[in-house]
Structure formats: structure tokens, C-alpha cells
Amino acid sequence: MSNFFTDNKDLQFTLANLELEDVVKFRENSYKQANEFDYAPENLDDARDSYKKVLEVVGEITGERIAPRARVIDEEGPQFESNKVTYHPLTINNLEDLKKADLAGVMLPREFGGLNFPVTIYTMMTEMVSRADASLQNLFGLQDIAETICEFGTEDQKQRFLPRFACGEADGSMDLTEPDSGSDLQSVRLKATLDPKTNQWYLDGMKRFITNGCSKVHLVLARSEEGTSDGRGLSMFICEACPQLVVRRIEHKLGIHGVATAELQYNHVPAELCGMRRRGLTKYVMSLMNGARVAISAQALGIAEAAYREARKYAAERKQFKTSIDKFAPVFTMLTSMKMEILAARTLLYETTKMVDLRWAYGHLVEHGKPEEITTDIRQNDKFYAKVAAVLTPMSKAYATEVANRVSYKGIQIHGGTGYMKDFNAERFYRDARITNIYEGTTQLQHVAAIGGIVQRVLDPIMDKFAALPYQGKLMRLSTQIHEMRKKQQIAVQYVAEKKDSTYFDMVTKHLVDMETYIFVGYLMLRDALKVSERETIAERFILDAVPEFDRSYAVVMSGDVTLIDNHKEILDY
Amino acid sequence: MKRQLMVFVKQVPDTKNISGEAMTPEGTVNRAALPAIFNPEDLNALELGLQLKEKYNFKVIVATMGPPNASEVLREALYRGADEAILITDRAFAGADTLATSYALSCCVKSIGNVELILCGRQAIDGDTAQVGPQLAEKLNIPQIAYVEEVIDASGKSIKARRAIEGGYEILESPLPTLLTVIDANEPRPASAKGIMKYKKAKTRSEVAKQLRDADYTEAAVLAEKETILRSKNLWIHEWDAAKINADVNRIGLKGSPTKVKKIESVVLKAGKVVSIEPSEAGINGLIRELIEDHTLG
Fold this sequence. Notes:
The complex is a heterodimer. Chain A has helices at 9-17, 21-27, 44-76, 89-100, 119-132, 134-140, 144-152, 155-166, 280-317, 329-368, 376-415, 426-433, 443-455, 460-467, 473-499, 502-531, 536-559, 563-573; strands at residues 79-81, 84-86, 172-175, 191-195, 200-211, 217-223, 234-240, 245-250, 261-274, 319-320, 323-324. By secondary structure, chain A is of the alpha+beta class. Chain A starts with 8 loop residues before the first helix and ends with a helix. Chain A contains 18 helices and 11 strands. In chain A, helix 3 (44-76) runs antiparallel to helix 4 and helix 7 (144-152) runs antiparallel to helix 9. Chain A has 4 domains: 1-170, Butyryl-Coa Dehydrogenase, subunit A, domain 1 (Orthogonal Bundle), CATH 1.10.540; 172-277, Butyryl-CoA Dehydrogenase, subunit A, domain 2; 279-450, Butyryl-CoA Dehydrogenase, subunit A, domain 3 (Up-down Bundle); 459-573, Four Helix Bundle (Hemerythrin (Met), subunit A). Chain A is 60% helix and 11% strand. The radius of gyration of chain A is 24 Å and the shape is globular. By secondary structure, chain B is of the alpha/beta class. Helix content of chain B is 32%, strand content 22%. Chain B has helices spanning 40-56, 71-80, 98-112, 132-140, 193-199, 205-214, 220-232, 281-293; strands spanning 4-9, 11-13, 36-38, 59-65, 84-88, 115-121, 144-153, 158-165, 168-175, 178-182, 238-240. Chain B has a 9-stranded mixed beta sheet with strand order 9-8-7-10-6-1-4-5-11, with helices on both faces. Chain B has a two-stranded antiparallel sheet with strand order 2-3. The longest helix of chain B is centred in the N-terminal third of the chain and has 17 residues, at 40-56. The termini of chain B are far apart. The A-B interface holds A 1, 38-41, 49-50, 53-54, 57, 60-61, 65, 93, 97, 100-103, 115 and B 16, 187, 189-198, 200, 233.
């Protein structure tokens, strides 16, 4: 029995030290709601205190209720019979607990029954839910659907749908993927037709791999413009579960067994347009996906945390050669690298969510503020944070999800043969982690999404600030090392740009993103070490480990070796 | 007027999560090593009370007797949906045994009046007596149903409840008012986020006074003004002393407690030596022989 918030020193450090002042002030519109809602904060301290208290409850629910149910849910999963999905009774208990704790509309405005929490706090919840049961996160996280309706829907749609989400009555799904459109969503074919007489939209076609496809409210990406074949012919629709929307089957998956992944058939399903025509993919789905990418980063981090803890516990208890195995260097180096990667992924993730929160705040000011109040500063910040979030979101997802895979892999390794057996949780974490670097965009696509901003040096102004912090002694020496890495990164980026070879660019993109990640996280580690001296060892370990990895990638990028472009086929065909 | 039910709860040391030595060398409970928590079965009683609120529109009043900081369990109850909270606190209550405690609680019930149902957890994890609930019913001269698992009906002037008995259950019906002691048969709801954010600001008079003292305010008028504001927002935790509930000073606290603690002994259980036995015919035969010689078998 444990509390997943109070037992996590790093998560508590993160909450206490993230400078959320601006985020909360904007989110709370200068605390104007305090008179209207008895649960709205009066000031920053009040808000912070509420976040902490609510996170403690989430920690208790996830640690004491949800985690102990996870293994049975994984083994038994949901039932599917006569086109109807029935979730496992324990999954239903989990959802009830979350609902009773008012956690079904965490970010929704209070007018609709939500808590109006920032992304940062919501993401911390996501992390804890995932640590307890990764599959449950896929249901918990679908409140993002409501978030999208809130951002882009009409007032009438908000009134009709959001309170249902906030009270936990409605659940959602995001119907994007089709048999022939996975990574390439521009080619989506599901047809939306408007009946000109009744002004009613209808959807016809297929969707595949739809998480919680048995939901009550669906957000659907469909082709509304006949004769088009690209992303600009797609619009977003809202539809409700109905007899014309058939769940054809649910998938048998490697992991995340607790949630149903469905194949859907649309037989003339009545639907309503959400937002503007033709903006479905280019604006709304991109926004939805960015939110989901943050959530998947947190899901991955939660799985990694769970895998690390069980491995550490096992290594301390397991005796071989008359001593516990965590005394052996090969084991404690594995454990240390697991812990370090988790700390790194966490500091990157919550720096990302802070930027996402700031982007949301300035975006709202620009879109909804009074024209006379929108200063040049606000406009510049809006653009700046949009760019920063657009780099950090994929960077964080690529990093956290690959970390989760490495950590859960080592988790089994530390358990030895026992870890390969179903009796322990290690193998579940390994299976659950495996999807995180695939869905909501593979790691390879995250690299593509991040590289543009890296070439444009979007993060430089932030890193300049970190570089200028008053480091002394060991931290100063470490900051010099990061500084050296930054210089090399600039050289590498310039080198690749001047080469003007798009295939080479694509080949080394992964390395450039990894290099940027090492530098950015290195600075975050240094910044955190300035706040608490016991984190100096952590910053030092991260940077000492990063240097050789960075240099290896640097050597690959600077090699200019293009032979693989010409001879990969020869190798593959051998 | 809304139907009223009361839930009596207790703040107890967490005997399951002991962070240090549970007993001091002098043989008393080491409070510092034991975090204070909501007595587990009282959470079951509260859960049942809240279910009755949802089903029959009861007003749920939660009360506890304890030191000033026992207000924390009252806030916990408010987070989950209780309507009103009362802290029964007075130095004169200190040292009460179950007799003096149930007397004080009965005074509290009487001063509220019109309470149709009283819910208590079966027992507290510190004393484990399971006496206070039944004694309270006796003091109030009302019927009681102990070991309740669930309430089947409370729509009319009586209550039908299912209680656990050895090897099964029985369903009893009793006229209201009735007292129920509740066992670990439901899953208490978690604290709700909105409840926390609102009721974390709920305070007792002593807590408000302390806050003001810390901020260097001492005028009574400021305190009174604070009270008015908190009351208007339903954030006032009543703090009742012996006089407020018309308790006879001779029947409360140490004075009213015939139970005398003669001696407390710290019993340390030590594991014996570990013997490993080969999983072979010879090993098992050896074990059986040893157990027979030991008179454990045969």
C-alpha cells in the first residue's frame, strides 16, 4: 500500500520548484472565479496548495486502489460479445473512483463542471495513473476529447457535451486511424456527406485501432470535401454511439490489455461538424495530437517509474552468491541508469508541460482578449511559446517513450528468469511500454516534428537563460561541458544544412534530436541542482553519461557518410 | 425539515504504518511514530451515511470527540460529502474510557435533536473495544443493529439492514431512531477534488483564533467577523465543549471513567531460529520425527 505522490520525491520536487506563477495566473484569469465558485483559488498559494492536496488524493487512489487491481485487469481484459464491449469490473471500479474524486474533467473550465487545472498538474495525474495501470490511462486520458470540443466547438456544443464529460457520464474516443491511414493521416477516406435538405452530416466508412472505440462520444476525422485527397479536404466531426456505428471487433494486443482497441464501421452515422470545414487535420487533430503526445510521454514515464521501483525492490531482496544482487556492479549500474533516465525524462516532460501551459495562456489572450489589451509583448510570447511547445512536445515524447522501453527492458533483466514469468509485474510493464513509442506518432515521426525547430534554434533563448545562471564549483565545470556540447551542436546543424542533401538530413535527424535533448536536459539538471544541493550528484551523473553519447552522435553526423543511401538495398538483399 | 443522520468518527494512530517504535520505553503509545488517520471502519460508516444521503436525502452530520487537531478527520469527512461537522473537545473530556465517551457522545446527540440514524464504525483500531457504539445506543435508549453490511431500506419510519453474523447474515428491521455499527463491507469513496478545494478552508474557532494570533490580530471582533464569513460559506466546524452539550462533569473524562489501566506491557514478539529442511525423503522423515518428539504431531 502506498501513495504514488507522497512516495515520489522527484515528483514532489517538480511540483514545488516549477515556476508556475504565470501559468496559474493566466489559467485563473487573475483569480476572478474565487467569488463565483467555492472551490476556485483566491491566489497562487491557494492554487498551489490545492494542486498538492488533490495530487495527494490521486496518489492515494492510484497507489492503494488502482495499482492492486492492475494485474487481474491485464490478465482478463474487457469482454467483447455481439458487438458490445464490456469493461472488466475492476476497470469500472477504477473509473468510478476517479469519477467520485472529480477527476473526469481536470482541465475543463469550472462553468462546465471541470477543475480548470493546468496541463502540468493534469500530466502529473496522468503519470501516477499510468504507474498504477498503464491501460487505465488510455481511458482517463480521453478527457482530452472534451478539451478539444472546449477549444474548437460552438457554445452550444460545449453546453451539450462538456458537463457530461466533467461529471464522468460520457467517455470519448478519437477516431483517426484507418486501415490504410496510420502515420499518413492526410489520406483518411471515411466519408462525410451533408444532406442539403436537412443540413445533417452523415459518416460512412471504417476506422481501425480506435482506443475505447466503444465510447459514447466520438471525435471523427473524415473527408468532407469530395474529390480531395489531401489533409485540406478533412474535417472533424462529433458523433454519438448509435446502432449505425458498429464495433466490429476488438484487437488482441501485446500490452495495455485493460482498454479496448476497436475496429469501427460507420453505416451512415449522423454527426455534427466541430469547428470549421477543411481544418480537421491541419488544426484540430494537430492540437488534439499534441495534447495526446504530452499524455503519452507521461504514460511512458509512469510505466518506467513502476518498472524501476519493482526492479529496485527485487534487486535488494534477491540474494545470489550470498549477497543481495544490488551489490553487484552490473546490477547497480543498470538500476542507476534506469533512475537517471527517469529523472531526465521527468524534468524534460514538466518543462514541456509548462511551455504548453504558457502557449495555451498566450494563445487565449490573443484569441479571446480585448484588442486593446493585446500588447506586442503578448503577441511575441504567443508566437514564441507556440514554437517552443512544438519542439519540446515531440522531443519529450521521443525521449520518455524510448526511456520507458529501455527501463522496462532492464526491469526484466534485473529480475532474471523470474522477470520473464507472468508471476511478476516486470513483463507487464515491458509489454505496456512497447506501444508508447508507436501510437500518437512513432518516435521516428517525433524526430521529424522536432527537427525543424532544432535547426531554427528555437530553444536557444531558453538555454541562454539557463547558461547564465550563477553556477559555482562542480556545477560551473559541468555547465562548461554543456556549453561545449552546444557549440558542437551548432556546428553539426550548420554542417547538415549546408550539405543540402535531404536523405542525409533524414538519416541524421535522430542524432540531432538526441543531441539537442542531451543539451536541454543537461541545463534543466543544472538548474534543478541549483535549487537543492542533493541534486548536484544527479546533474553530474547525467552530464558525465551524456558526453560520450553526445560525442558518438556528433561523430556520426559529422562523418558525412552517405554510403548507406546507396548501398542499403544491397545489404538488405544479401 | 430534512431528515438527519449522524456519523461518529475517530482520529486514531495508524497502527498499520508504524514509522518507529510503537511504544515508548515507559510503555505508553509513542504518538510521534504513528501518523494520525481516519479510523478505517468509521470511513465505512461515513460511506454508508453518504449513500443514505444520496438515496433518501438525509443531512449527514459528522462528529468526533478528541483534541483540537482531530478537526482533520472532520475535514476529511467534508471532502467526501458530509454536510456539517462537529468537534467535541474540552480538556474535561481527557482520559475518557468507553463509558465516559459514550455518555459525552449521547449528550451531543441530544443537543442536536431529531437524529433518526446514528452510524458508528464497528471499532477503532487503537482500542479495539467495539463498545462505544453499543453503549451510545444504550445511553440514548434506542435500538441498535451491530455489524451492519448494508442498509436495505430507510425510506419510512423504520430501517431494514443486513448485518453479518457468524457463518452468514441476517436482515433486521428496527424502528427509527436506531444506531448502526458498520463493518468493512463497502468501499469508502475517495475524497473529491472539489470537496478538498472548498473544505480545506473549513475551520474550528480555535483554528481561526490561532491563525489570527499568528497574524497578530487579537480583537474579538475580528474573530467574530471571520466566524460570520465562514458560517455563511458553510465552512465553520462547530467546536463544542462540555458545557455546550450539557454534560455532567462527573460523568466525563477521567472522573467519569471507572476503567483503570493497571499496567501496559510492551510485548516484543521474536522469531525463533530458522531451520532449513532438504526436500527429500530423508529430510521430511526427519521433520516428522522431530514434530512427533516435540508433541506437535501425534
